[in-house]
Specification:
The protein has a single domain, classed as Glutaredoxin. The chain contains four helices and four strands, in the order αβαβαββα. The chain is α+β, with helices and mostly antiparallel strands. The longest helix is centred in the middle third of the chain and has 16 residues. A four-stranded mixed β-sheet has the order 2-1-3-4.
Length: 99
């Protein structure tokens, strides 16, 4: 799911599921390498909502969450920020954000 300034709070902070938010850009090589990992998490874990924010199209969201490097994945549970992964990470590391 693509997020923007209008739907972020509803889809992430208002979600009844844990949420991973992938901040990325189309020109970012590591972001493109992370994409299939995030898609795999989405396929294998129905209990987790996986979302994406294109930092070039949504600079206000990137600024709101102080995104200075990408890729960066933020984890939220019950509307609260619980952790992040920065740079290219494997599936196990990203899923461990919820532990």
């Amino acid at each position: 799911m693509e997020l923007n300034a209008e739907n972020f709070d509803k889809e992430v902070l208002g979600s009844d599921k844990p949420v991973l938010v992938d901040f990325w850009a189309s020109w970012c090589g590591p972001c493109m390498m992370l994409a299939p990992i995030m898609e795999e998490i989405e396929r294998e874990h129905d209990e987790i909502k996986v979302c994406k924010v294109n930092v070039d199209e949504e600079p206000e969201l990137a600024q709101r969450f102080e995104i200075s490097t990408i890729p960066r994945v933020l984890a939220f549970d019950k509307g609260k920020y619980i952790g992040m992964s920065e740079g290219l990470a494997d599936k196990e590391y990203i899923l461990a954000l919820f532990n």
